[in-house]
Design brief:
Elements lengths: L1 E6 L2 E4 L4 E9 L6 E7 L6 E7 L4 E3 L7 E5 L5 E6 L8 E7 L3 E2 L3 E6 L1
Parallel strand pairs: 2-11
Antiparallel strand pairs: 1-3, 3-8, 4-5, 4-9, 5-6, 7-8, 9-10, 9-11
Length: 112
């Protein structure tokens, strides 16, 4: 089992930037893919971005060109650099490992 802890959320004005961090612990050798998901009020959870152990990246169309996922020097850490934030990016952002283990989430609020 993998434990995940997110940080970096907060309140930002439209057009601003935030960087989310996720630190994994436990059975990290089992992680093939780490991803960021979000759930906005009244909506279903959706994939924002993911990165495989080999470095392949995937992005939702809504965030392409604005968000960048990366892994730290310690591969159990993953980041989500968010720029050009929009009010519709407001959501709770979750880190996931292999879509099996999930963090507690971090709130991102973008004001207009």
């Amino acid at each position: 089992q993998v434990q995940l802890v997110e940080s970096g959320g907060g309140l930002v004005q439209a057009g601003g930037s935030l960087r989310l961090s996720c630190v994994a612990s436990g059975s990290i050798f089992m992680i093939n893919v780490m991803g960021w998901y979000r759930r906005a009020p009244g909506k279903q959870r959706e994939l924002v971005s993911s990165i495989t152990s080999g470095g392949s990246e995937n992005y939702a169309d809504s965030v392409k060109g604005r968000f960048t996922i990366s892994r730290g020097k310690v591969k159990s850490t993953v980041y989500l650099q968010m720029s050009g934030l929009k009010p519709e990016d407001t959501a709770v952002y979750y880190c996931a490992a292999n879509r099996d283990d999930w963090g507690q989430g971090t709130q991102v609020t973008v004001s207009s």
